[in-house]
Amino acid sequence: MIIVNVNGEELQTDVEADTPILWVLRDTFGMTGTKFGCGMALCGACTVHLDGAPIRSCLMPVSRAVGKRIATIESMSKDRVGRAVQAAWIELDVPQCGYCQSGQIMSAVALLASNPRPSDEAIDAAMSGNICRCGTYNQIRAAIKSAAAKLAD
What we know:
The chain is an alpha+beta fold. The protein has helices at 21-28, 80-91, 101-114, 120-127, 137-152; strands spanning 2-6, 9-13, 47-50, 53-56, 69-71.
């Protein structure tokens, strides 16, 4: 039995230790906000936080999360930075198809949690592992800047 902390709750599962976190979240715990994209940790759709750092959950084995905190998109409304980022996404109408947006938001929240006033270069670096097929990169950058400004108030 594997016990992991997901969104502040201790959950247990009997999956194999090498099962990717993504599939434990989606298939075992029913948390479908984290998306499967490429399966190779290249697109960022599966981004979650592990002890506050963004990780690609499609390849990270659940055994690496034991004793750590996993945060998913489902918990971002309870987080001050998460709420600000989500509000900016809505205000600036960032999503088009929306598929990548949970991963985009998770990366943006991690960035602003560690760097509350990021430069364009810092935003580009933090978001470079997240691919948006719709090309909403300008809106994403603007939303991150908007959230940063609102958090600074």
